[in-house]
């Protein structure tokens, strides 16, 4: 750590060299940067490829780059280095001498080819924490192969349990594997920083999309382990709980997530049908699962004259988990989203706020996403 840096966040004084591109690594380093870490984002001369993943483009932010890039690269300094050249590698080693953490997501073997693998770096920088985000890791049957979010969703079972029962396997509508991999990398870095306080040593963090995708298979994996049945797709319905799915209303779609008998009885009473909770077909969660179709039909009839958003608030106030299905524009404009600081506005910049709320050292916006090579001159980086 670097105690000379003002304590502006929980990670103030922690210097991170970020060689990662696209999403998993940059998402990780933005989480750390939001909480005070000094992150140097180092891109190849051509830039992080997501700078061009538009439209839309965020004019006036990050050098008029794609909104995709802007979404995960705030609070970072921006440098360019050509690591295929000796001058670039030498300059990087100089940065690592003052760094706490290195984050990279090159294909396994690339850093080693450049003489920058962990086994080499740990001798020169024993306190350095080296976090590699990759598709499959360096060894094993799939070791060294490139990894992509959608492919991980397909091969690790996520698509097989997502979508309508009679439909085709469906990708989750956001890059969930990349983002969870970024979060796991964040957790790993914080664990290693904490352990280094005791040992004084860094270590290698091996975080893969494959592992992180497999880790998301709850409750489907335990259901398979102990039930022996291969899980399938059930649309919006939960495999273990009923009623736990969407229902049409007169205005909007309502999601009910009823997890116990008290909640079910309250739901029925609020709908003016308390006898439904006494029906033997619905007297327990197991019974409701066995009669899910009939229950869905009965609840749909009772909800036919309701307005999803208003009725969801009534149910929540009575302890019944419920929510109207909102689109992205609706949730970003919701008063509670603003109240929680989950939308950041600064000049031309708009971004999602940090969900990690610390009372004394909150996340802050200190720098907008950098233009390509914006801080080269400040760091005397070699031209590339």
From TrEMBL:
GO terms for molecular function: CoA-transferase activity. Coiled coil: none annotated. It comes from Bordetella genomosp. 5. Pfam families: CoA_transf_3. It comes from the Bacteria. Keywords: Transferase. This is Carnitine dehydratase.
